[in-house]
Design a protein that fits this description.
There is one protein chain. By secondary structure, the protein is α+β, with helices and mostly antiparallel strands. It has two domains: 137 residues, no CATH class; 71 residues, Alpha-Beta Plaits (2-Layer Sandwich). Helices cover 58% and strands 15% of the residues. It is built from eight helices and four strands; from the N terminus they run H-H-H-H-H-H-E-H-E-E-H-E. It has a four-stranded antiparallel beta sheet with strand order 2-3-1-4, with helices on one face. Strand 2 and strand 3 form a beta hairpin. Helix 2 packs parallel to helix 6 and helix 3 packs antiparallel against helix 4. The chain is rod-shaped and about 90 Å long. The protein starts with a helix and ends in a 7-residue tail after the last strand.
Length: 226
Amino acid sequence: MATFSNIFKRSFLEGYANVELSTSQILIVMLFSLLVGIYIYCVYRFLTKKTFYSKSFNISLVLMSVITAAIILTVQSSVVISLGMVGALSIVRFRTAVKDPMDLAFLFWSISVGIICGAGLVEVAIILSIAATAVIMVLDRIPVLKAPMILVINSSYDEETDKKIAECIGKHTDNYTEKSRVATGGVLELVYELRTKEGPALSRELTALEGVTSVSLMSHEGEVSF
């Protein structure tokens, strides 16, 4: 005797008919996802500017596109398998932190290619890859404003020395800001933020000033304020 539950399950499954995929279709999808993944591999290899290039991460980009395409094909084949796969993947936890935003972009690019190829829209994956490469190359050529340098000076706490320091800094740069002034026991510590192409000359002249005990000129890779 058919119950309401059985009728509901049967109608639900019949509403999602299984998609029969031939071996040739599967191979074509996997081949194109592999080719686009290799393309992403080459783009990451030649455009990345990190000091320590991670080959294992780059290989994972290729595998990610192929594996994602296989998952999408499986999801299309049966609604029962797709529901089971969602439950299985929900327990997976990735502990590796992606520190570089560009690595995260390449990872999302690879996953997107796998999804698109698995859905049978290979042309979209190719156009997406070409467009992403063009965007990276164009934006990478835009010059970036160089981060300011930090100048730390320790000197005697008197008006004459303070004036000479200001004149010396103004001689070598027109763009500087006093960030800190700390006086302790007759010793003055000054911190300036500045941009200059004459760092060595500036350091030498400041060190030669009477009353200046130490000079430190440091660069940093922090965010640039405009």
